[in-house]
Amino acid sequence: MLIQTTTPNIARTLDFYDRLSFTRIGDNLLTDGQAVIRINTAHTARNGLVFFRDSWDDFLEELTYPHTTLKDSDTVLVSGPDGVRIFLETGEEPVITHQDVIMPSLAGAYAGISLESVDMQRANAFYESLGFTHDQGSPDKGWVSLLNDDRQGISIMGMDSCPHQFFQPGLTYFNSGKNQAHITRIREAGVPIHEEVTVFNNKGEVDNIILLDPGGLGFFVFND
Questions:
Q1: Angle at 111 between CA 109 and CA 18, to 5 degrees
Q2: Burial class (CB in 10 A: 0-12, 13-18, 19+), 87
């Protein structure tokens, strides 16, 4: 799985990720050592999650969600149960190799993708069909996390459970109570902060932040 972001201006987008200390690993591919982000420069492109298999024929035969093949492409676009655009591509997924120079990003410890869903049971089943298995929580409790074989995580939450703006898909970073240091470094690097979150403490302190890249991809940089 990789995350696709789009851009109104490739120079602005690359500057955002350079300031955040992501590593460029190929043409319009970036990573912090865990998340892999692809910048799609086409004006018709949209943000979403990209999955790879040698063939999607069997999966598509069982698929009940609306889907279409993109123009001049073999990529299948699926509208999943949470409204996130899912891109199904054939071939090998870009991987991080030992030759890549990987430095942690200023956002800290990557904790996977966060999503909100109006039907958590269906969303849970959908991502299980893409190869994810249960890790923590449950749909009945309003939060569930899933992992695939590569230990990539997706967390699904019920609607209206997060008291801040929410962008889907959103990259989540949990810094175990040490988030203030990450926020300071992000400010010093000149990365624009989209939202300062104070609701999780009674002192009105900014202890969590949300970033937004130029294409609208969200980053939740939180304590945990």
A1: 55
A2: buried
Amino acid at 100: D
| pTM score over 0.90 | yes
Q: How many domains does the chain have?
A: 2
Shared domain for 153 and 79, answered yes or no, is no
Cα(223)–Cα(207) distance, integer angstroms: 7
- 84 in the same domain as 184: no
Rounded distance between C-alpha atoms, residue 119 and residue 148, angstroms: 21
Shared domain for 60 and 134, answered yes or no, is no
End-to-end CA distance of the chain: 23
Q: Hey, which residues does 154 pair with through a beta bridge?
A: 113, 146
Do the domain assignments include residue 96?
Answer: no
**186-211 per-position pLDDT tens digit:** 999 999 999 999 989 888 899 999 99
Sequence-ordered alpha helix ranges (H) in the chain: 10-19, 57-62, 120-129, 179-188
